[in-house]
Automatic annotation (TrEMBL):
Name the record gives this protein: Amidohydrolase family protein
Pfam families: Amidohydro_1
GO molecular-function terms, A-Z: hydrolase activity, acting on carbon-nitrogen (but not peptide) bonds, in cyclic amides
Keyword presence, Iron-sulfur: no
Cofactor: Zn(2+)
UniProt superkingdom: Archaea
The Amidohydrolase-related domain, residue ranges: 52-432
GO biological process, one term: pyrimidine nucleotide biosynthetic process
Length: 460
């Protein structure tokens, strides 16, 4: 027997250890792991001396071509491929009407899923979708079964903005989420508290971005999380708190995990590596919601990632231009920042080089846990039989991040000028290289839609 590829002499990073081992790839899957002498002959041999061999990163929170974010699938997933990300979950937005809407009329969740699948045809990486419920229309419950049949086994809800849902409706969604055994993904900020504080800052003329964090404080995030998690627990629904930014909100998730549990949460690379001083240094560029917090929150996020209250690190990638961000008043800025291309090197550098965590910790937070949490059964590991999504990563190479390298349509980086040690050298998706030494080497459309199974949170 001959296999397609053997990657030899590298150090494999699994969720719990480092392994000096070779890895054989055949037909898009990982065929075997072991001493090279025990592996079958291969058509191609790659010498990974000095490199870490990681599973492809699974990013469960991205915004690409769908609502506001400027990135097309080709641009956004090129950035992902260059950053070692091989799978992502984007959003299928139930169309609504209103000031923040891009649609002329309301649409259904199932239509949104079909629309986004279609848009994803130029994807370079494998992608899936969360269904975003934006209106309090119980008709959505009648299409849930069909949405799940399309491989969309998670729904997202907001507690803020005009798409924010009332607790009563969220509670109702949880009932169906529990019934269908899928996952509810929540953006939690108490809208009334945020609105009051925003109005006060406006009245006081505090228009510089340095004031922005005061408009969406940590307690507003924690309050809304508290209500949502409590309802999820009462209904028996699986709950996933996205972009947890603060110690207070992470504490809430941890508290509700005592029963052992249906509560999980993520934070994002930027919340662990930047703090609110970035609004002084970069003006509106890092404006996103919730805001960047304090150095103490960063420390707490790492503690909670380590102890399990949080278990995933994502990007919340959202592409805007510097022009979109250059505004007189912070409240006129677009919200969000791009991060797909830099997330792995920036988080790796922070976690491993600056804070002393092991590369396995990075693999748990960015590969294994997101895959397991969202039902990507073939992703996030180097286990034989799963997809050969592999990143060759040089832990010793240092470089300086600059937006000049961006594949995203976004023309700035919130990490501009940051020197990191650790660089993505090559990214494989299902056995084929898609990015090599900073260049895209696959054709748009190589990435496929992944129909996800109902996530099993019992099987750890
Ligand atoms: Zn987001």
């Amino acid at each position: 027997m001959t296999v397609d590829l053997v990657i030899a002499n590298g150090t494999l990073v699994t969720p719990d250890r480092l392994l000096d081992s070779a890895i054989a790839v055949d037909d898009g899957e990982i065929a075997a792991v072991g001493d090279e002498r025990t592996l079958p002959a291969a058509d191609e041999r790659v010498d990974a001396s000095g490199l870490l061999v990681l599973p492809g990163v699974v990013d469960p929170h991205v915004h690409i071509d769908g609502y506001l974010s400027l990135d097309t699938y080709e641009a956004g997933t090129s950035a992902a491929a260059l950053g070692g990300i091989t799978s992502c979950i984007n959003f299928a937005w139930e169309a609504w009407t209103g000031d923040l809407s891009i649609w002329d009329e309301e649409g259904t969740l199932l239509e949104a899923v079909h629309r986004q699948k279609e848009k994803g045809q130029k994807s370079l990486i494998d992608f899936s979708l969360h269904g975003a419920i934006t209106r309090e229309d119980p008709a959505v419950f009648d299409e849930l079964e069909d949405v799940i049949d399309e491989g969309v086994t998670s729904v997202k809800m907001f507690t803020a903005y005009e798409i924010g849902l009332s607790n009563g409706f969220i509670d109702h969604v949880f009932e169906h989420v529990a019934d269908q055994d899928i996952v509810a993904v929540l953006h939690t900020e108490d809208a009334s508290v945020c609105n009051r504080l925003e109005a006060r800052l406006k009245a006081e003329g505090k228009s510089h971005p340095r004031h922005y964090p005061q408009s969406r404080p940590d307690y507003a995030e924690a309050m809304a999380a508290e209500s949502a998690v409590r309802m999820a627990q009462e209904q028996g629904a699986k709950y996933y708190g996205i972009h947890t930014t603060s110690e207070k909100a992470a504490d809430v998730l941890g508290r509700y995990q005592d029963d052992g549990s249906r509560v999980r949460g993520e934070t994002c690379t930027q919340y662990t590596t930047l703090d609110e001083s970035a609004y002084e240094e970069q003006d509106s560029l890092p404006i996103m919601a919730p805001p960047l917090r304090t150095p103490a929150d960063q420390d707490a996020l790492f503690e909670h990632l380590y102890n399990g209250a949080l278990s995933v690190v994502s990007t919340d990638h959202n592409a805007f231009t510097r022009a979109d961000k250059t505004v007189e008043n912070w409240w006129d800025s677009s919200f969000g920042a791009n991060g797909l291309q830099t997330s792995l090197p920036v988080f790796y550098d922070e976690a491993v080089n600056r804070r002393g965590y092991s590369p396995s910790f990075v693999v748990r937070m960015m590969c294994a846990n997101p895959a397991q949490t969202f039902g990507f059964t073939e992703k996030g590991t180097l286990d034989p039989g799963t997809d050969a999504d592999i990143v060759l990563f040089d832990p010793d190479e240092s470089y300086t991040i600059t937006a000049a390298d961006n594949a995203s349509i976004s023309d700035y980086s919130i990490y501009e000028g940051r020197e990191v040690t650790g660089r993505v050298k090559r990214t494989y998706l299902r056995g084929e290289p898609i990015a090599d030494d900073g260049e895209i080497v696959a054709d748009p459309g190589y990435g496929e839609f992944v129909a996800r199974e109902r996530p099993d949170w019992e099987a750890e």
